[in-house]
Amino acid sequence: MTMNRREKAVKMRHKGESYNEIVKKLGVSKGTLSYWFKGSKESQRIKSKNISQAKLVWARNISLFNKRRSGEARANWMKLQVDASKLVHWLSRNDLLLVGTSLYWAEGYKKGNWSVVFSNSDPQMHQLMIRFFREICGVPVNKLRGQVQIYQNIKPREAVRYWSRVTSIPAKQFIKCNKSISISSKKRRGNTLPYGTLRVRINDVRLVNKIKGLIKGLIKSTGIGV
Questions:
Q1: Each residue's pLDDT tens digit, 158-212
Q2: Whole-angstrom Cα distance, residue 26 to residue 8?
Q3: What backbone phi and psi angles, to 5 degrees, belong to 27?
């Protein structure tokens, strides 16, 4: 005997087909299917399964969309960085004077009267400041002293070797490392500064006052002095 549409619908439903698939094949409304399948535990099970699968597909599509959008954003950011980098040319002597003065104004120790002290964890910033001290301030290498502030899991000798290589300050001119616990980590997560923070010190009263004068001149030249 030929199956009627209701029997076909039930059979299709038991095979796991969705309402949309059955409606398309049999030409009946969803309301009719709901009436036919009312009280069917098998239909409810299939409905739950289909909803779960739909959620998985949705989550996967959202993840792919987010990855694609993130990749496009990174590409745009990189283009912005490349374009911006082209605006900066090789530093002239005067440029180096202004940049070094600005960095010391921001990061250097300015309360003391006897020593110039610059501390940071960025190796490239230290390389630039060493150029400033050597080329602009006329500081010989033998007057540069280094001290590394190290945190948990950092080996002192490795840290000193690293910063000595970065700055060209001989390792013998480094004083004993200062050990401390990183406030940001407190041993709960990995240390993000594998070689610690370097403090460069120059004991020179004349240089202290020269840099203070450069900072005053920078403030005056920008018209921001009070």
A1: 999 999 999 999 999 999 998 876 555 455 555 578 899 999 999 999 999 999 9
A2: 8
A3: 75, 30
Neighbour count for residue 146 (Cβ, 10 Å): 21
The answer to whether the beta carbons of residues 178 and 156 sit under 8 Å apart is no
The answer, yes or no, to whether residue 137 has pLDDT greater than 80, is yes
Angle at 21 between CA 15 and CA 27, to 5 degrees: 115
Please state, in angstroms and as integers, the Cα–Cα distance from residue 150 to each residue in 122, 157, 167, 197, 201, following that order. 14, 11, 17, 7, 17
User: What's the whole-number mean pLDDT along residues 69-86?
Assistant: 90
pLDDT tens digit sequence for 80-120: 999 999 999 999 999 999 999 999 999 999 888 899 999 99
pTM given for the model: 0.66
Task: State CA 185 to chain mean position distance.
Answer: 16
Dihedral angle over CA of 188, 146, 110, 105, nearest 10: -80
Range list of H helices, the chain: 5-14, 19-26, 30-36, 41-85, 93-107, 123-131, 156-167, 205-222
Cβ(143)–Cβ(134) below 8 Å: no
- Cα–Cα distance between 20 and 113 in angstroms, integer? 82
Does residue 175 come out as left (phi exceeding 0), alpha (psi in the -120 to 50 range) or beta? beta
Q: Which two tokens stand for residue 91?
A: 């530093």
